[in-house]
Design brief:
This protein has 224 residues and is an alpha/beta fold. The chain is built from 5 helices and 12 strands. Bound molecules: fe (ii) ion (FE2).
Length: 224
Protein backbone atom coordinates (compact mmCIF):
# COMPACT_ATOMS: atom_id res chain seq x y z
CA UNK A 1 0.00 0.00 0.00
CA UNK A 2 1.26 3.46 -0.80
CA UNK A 3 -0.07 6.77 0.42
CA UNK A 4 0.82 10.14 -1.06
CA UNK A 5 1.44 13.11 1.23
CA UNK A 6 1.57 16.36 -0.72
CA UNK A 7 4.03 18.50 1.21
CA UNK A 8 4.14 22.25 0.58
CA UNK A 9 7.85 22.82 1.08
CA UNK A 10 8.49 25.97 3.15
CA UNK A 11 4.91 27.06 2.35
CA UNK A 12 5.98 28.54 -0.98
CA UNK A 13 3.57 26.45 -3.03
CA UNK A 14 6.33 24.07 -4.11
CA UNK A 15 4.72 20.68 -3.67
CA UNK A 16 6.85 17.57 -3.19
CA UNK A 17 5.34 14.09 -2.98
CA UNK A 18 6.30 12.31 0.21
CA UNK A 19 5.11 8.70 0.35
CA UNK A 20 4.31 6.25 3.07
CA UNK A 21 4.85 2.77 1.67
CA UNK A 22 3.78 -0.04 3.96
CA UNK A 23 2.89 -3.67 4.29
CA UNK A 24 -0.76 -3.89 5.32
CA UNK A 25 -0.27 -7.13 7.28
CA UNK A 26 2.71 -6.20 9.45
CA UNK A 27 2.33 -2.38 9.26
CA UNK A 28 6.08 -2.11 8.63
CA UNK A 29 6.68 1.03 6.62
CA UNK A 30 9.15 3.28 4.85
CA UNK A 31 8.93 7.03 4.52
CA UNK A 32 10.01 8.16 1.07
CA UNK A 33 11.40 11.70 0.65
CA UNK A 34 10.36 13.45 3.89
CA UNK A 35 10.26 16.80 2.14
CA UNK A 36 9.09 19.01 5.04
CA UNK A 37 6.42 19.17 7.77
CA UNK A 38 7.63 16.32 9.98
CA UNK A 39 4.59 16.74 12.25
CA UNK A 40 2.20 16.09 9.36
CA UNK A 41 4.11 12.94 8.37
CA UNK A 42 4.23 11.74 11.99
CA UNK A 43 0.51 12.32 12.47
CA UNK A 44 -0.31 10.20 9.45
CA UNK A 45 2.05 7.42 10.57
CA UNK A 46 0.35 7.37 13.98
CA UNK A 47 -3.14 7.41 12.45
CA UNK A 48 -2.32 4.44 10.22
CA UNK A 49 -0.54 2.60 13.06
CA UNK A 50 2.63 2.17 11.01
CA UNK A 51 6.04 0.97 12.20
CA UNK A 52 8.70 2.89 10.24
CA UNK A 53 11.76 0.81 9.36
CA UNK A 54 13.71 3.10 7.02
CA UNK A 55 13.57 6.42 5.27
CA UNK A 56 14.15 6.12 1.53
CA UNK A 57 15.58 9.01 -0.47
CA UNK A 58 15.24 9.25 -4.23
CA UNK A 59 17.96 11.92 -4.14
CA UNK A 60 19.33 14.44 -1.68
CA UNK A 61 18.02 17.80 -2.88
CA UNK A 62 16.76 19.95 -0.03
CA UNK A 63 13.14 20.01 -1.27
CA UNK A 64 13.03 16.26 -0.55
CA UNK A 65 14.88 16.30 2.80
CA UNK A 66 13.90 19.18 5.09
CA UNK A 67 12.16 16.82 7.55
CA UNK A 68 14.75 14.05 7.16
CA UNK A 69 16.76 14.52 10.36
CA UNK A 70 13.64 14.98 12.47
CA UNK A 71 12.02 11.83 11.08
CA UNK A 72 15.20 9.75 11.55
CA UNK A 73 15.47 10.93 15.16
CA UNK A 74 11.81 10.44 15.95
CA UNK A 75 11.76 6.77 14.87
CA UNK A 76 15.46 6.00 15.43
CA UNK A 77 15.82 4.69 11.88
CA UNK A 78 18.40 4.98 9.11
CA UNK A 79 18.02 6.37 5.62
CA UNK A 80 18.63 4.41 2.45
CA UNK A 81 20.05 6.40 -0.47
CA UNK A 82 21.92 5.61 -3.66
CA UNK A 83 25.64 5.16 -3.03
CA UNK A 84 26.56 7.84 -5.57
CA UNK A 85 24.51 10.47 -3.70
CA UNK A 86 27.09 10.58 -0.90
CA UNK A 87 28.72 13.71 -2.34
CA UNK A 88 25.55 15.75 -1.79
CA UNK A 89 24.80 14.16 1.59
CA UNK A 90 28.20 15.07 3.03
CA UNK A 91 28.11 18.55 1.54
CA UNK A 92 30.71 18.18 -1.22
CA UNK A 93 28.05 18.78 -3.85
CA UNK A 94 25.16 21.25 -3.92
CA UNK A 95 21.86 20.18 -2.33
CA UNK A 96 20.14 23.31 -3.74
CA UNK A 97 19.61 24.79 -0.26
CA UNK A 98 20.61 28.27 -1.35
CA UNK A 99 17.76 28.31 -3.88
CA UNK A 100 15.41 28.20 -0.89
CA UNK A 101 17.39 30.58 1.33
CA UNK A 102 18.65 27.72 3.50
CA UNK A 103 22.06 26.46 4.57
CA UNK A 104 23.45 23.28 3.02
CA UNK A 105 22.89 20.25 5.29
CA UNK A 106 25.91 18.00 5.92
CA UNK A 107 24.80 14.60 7.17
CA UNK A 108 26.64 12.04 9.26
CA UNK A 109 27.09 8.97 7.08
CA UNK A 110 26.52 6.70 10.10
CA UNK A 111 22.83 7.51 9.71
CA UNK A 112 22.76 6.22 6.13
CA UNK A 113 22.75 2.95 4.24
CA UNK A 114 24.34 3.67 0.87
CA UNK A 115 22.72 1.21 -1.53
CA UNK A 116 24.11 -0.45 -4.64
CA UNK A 117 22.23 -0.78 -7.93
CA UNK A 118 19.89 -3.77 -7.66
CA UNK A 119 20.07 -4.03 -3.89
CA UNK A 120 16.82 -5.22 -2.32
CA UNK A 121 15.39 -4.26 1.07
CA UNK A 122 12.57 -6.16 2.73
CA UNK A 123 9.89 -4.31 4.64
CA UNK A 124 7.24 -6.66 5.98
CA UNK A 125 6.24 -8.70 2.94
CA UNK A 126 7.35 -6.01 0.50
CA UNK A 127 10.60 -6.20 -1.40
CA UNK A 128 11.96 -2.86 -2.52
CA UNK A 129 14.64 -2.80 -5.20
CA UNK A 130 17.03 0.10 -5.66
CA UNK A 131 17.56 1.08 -9.30
CA UNK A 132 20.34 3.53 -10.13
CA UNK A 133 19.00 6.27 -12.42
CA UNK A 134 21.63 9.03 -12.57
CA UNK A 135 20.81 12.17 -14.53
CA UNK A 136 18.95 14.66 -12.32
CA UNK A 137 21.69 14.01 -9.78
CA UNK A 138 24.55 11.53 -9.96
CA UNK A 139 23.12 9.37 -7.19
CA UNK A 140 19.41 9.56 -8.08
CA UNK A 141 17.62 6.25 -7.67
CA UNK A 142 14.18 4.80 -8.33
CA UNK A 143 12.58 2.18 -6.11
CA UNK A 144 10.63 -0.74 -7.56
CA UNK A 145 8.12 -2.43 -5.30
CA UNK A 146 7.42 -5.92 -6.53
CA UNK A 147 4.17 -6.60 -4.69
CA UNK A 148 2.13 -3.69 -5.99
CA UNK A 149 4.11 -3.25 -9.21
CA UNK A 150 4.86 0.36 -8.55
CA UNK A 151 7.90 2.47 -9.33
CA UNK A 152 8.91 5.45 -7.23
CA UNK A 153 10.75 7.74 -9.61
CA UNK A 154 11.78 10.82 -7.62
CA UNK A 155 12.86 13.62 -9.97
CA UNK A 156 13.95 11.24 -12.72
CA UNK A 157 10.57 10.75 -14.38
CA UNK A 158 7.33 12.72 -14.00
CA UNK A 159 3.95 12.08 -15.61
CA UNK A 160 4.74 14.33 -18.57
CA UNK A 161 8.47 15.07 -18.41
CA UNK A 162 11.81 14.17 -16.90
CA UNK A 163 13.81 15.94 -14.20
CA UNK A 164 15.98 18.96 -14.95
CA UNK A 165 19.58 18.25 -15.82
CA UNK A 166 21.25 21.63 -15.26
CA UNK A 167 22.15 21.28 -11.57
CA UNK A 168 25.32 20.23 -9.77
CA UNK A 169 26.03 16.52 -10.56
CA UNK A 170 23.28 16.53 -13.24
CA UNK A 171 24.12 14.90 -16.59
CA UNK A 172 21.86 14.74 -19.63
CA UNK A 173 23.66 11.71 -21.09
CA UNK A 174 23.09 9.82 -17.86
CA UNK A 175 19.44 10.89 -17.88
CA UNK A 176 18.89 9.46 -21.36
CA UNK A 177 20.50 6.15 -20.36
CA UNK A 178 18.44 6.03 -17.16
CA UNK A 179 15.15 6.73 -18.93
CA UNK A 180 15.86 4.05 -21.52
CA UNK A 181 16.77 1.63 -18.74
CA UNK A 182 13.39 2.24 -17.10
CA UNK A 183 11.35 2.05 -20.31
CA UNK A 184 13.06 -1.14 -21.45
CA UNK A 185 12.56 -2.97 -18.21
CA UNK A 186 9.18 -1.77 -16.97
CA UNK A 187 6.05 -2.16 -19.03
CA UNK A 188 3.14 -2.61 -16.66
CA UNK A 189 4.16 -0.47 -13.74
CA UNK A 190 2.69 2.75 -12.45
CA UNK A 191 5.00 5.60 -11.56
CA UNK A 192 4.96 7.65 -8.37
CA UNK A 193 7.07 10.75 -9.05
CA UNK A 194 8.66 13.26 -6.69
CA UNK A 195 6.34 16.00 -7.90
CA UNK A 196 3.02 16.12 -9.73
CA UNK A 197 0.49 13.46 -10.61
CA UNK A 198 0.87 9.96 -9.25
CA UNK A 199 -0.11 6.45 -10.27
CA UNK A 200 0.58 6.99 -13.99
CA UNK A 201 1.27 4.02 -16.30
CA UNK A 202 4.91 4.39 -17.33
CA UNK A 203 4.10 3.88 -21.02
CA UNK A 204 1.85 6.95 -20.93
CA UNK A 205 4.84 9.14 -20.14
CA UNK A 206 7.00 8.12 -23.07
CA UNK A 207 5.69 10.35 -25.86
CA UNK A 208 5.90 13.51 -23.75
CA UNK A 209 9.41 12.62 -22.60
CA UNK A 210 10.55 11.96 -26.14
CA UNK A 211 9.17 15.28 -27.43
CA UNK A 212 10.63 17.22 -24.51
CA UNK A 213 14.03 15.62 -24.99
CA UNK A 214 13.98 16.54 -28.67
CA UNK A 215 12.73 20.11 -28.14
CA UNK A 216 15.22 20.89 -25.37
CA UNK A 217 18.28 18.90 -26.44
CA UNK A 218 17.67 17.99 -30.10
CA UNK A 219 18.18 14.39 -29.09
CA UNK A 220 15.87 11.68 -30.34
CA UNK A 221 15.81 8.95 -27.74
CA UNK A 222 14.19 6.62 -30.26
CA UNK A 223 12.06 3.62 -29.40
CA UNK A 224 12.54 1.41 -26.44
FE1 LIG B 1 15.62 17.32 -7.25
Amino acid sequence: MIEQLKIDVLDINHITNCYLLFDEDTKEAVIIDPADKANLIEERIAYLGLKPKYVLLTHAHIDHTIALSEIMNKYDIKTIAGKLEEGILVGNNDDCSNRYGLEQVNYNMEDFILAQDGQVFNVGNLSIEVIFTPGHTKGSVCYFVNKDNLLITGDTLFYNCFGRCDLDTSDIGNMIRSLKKLYRRFKNVNIYPGHGKINIPIDNTYDDVRVLMYNNYKIDIGGY
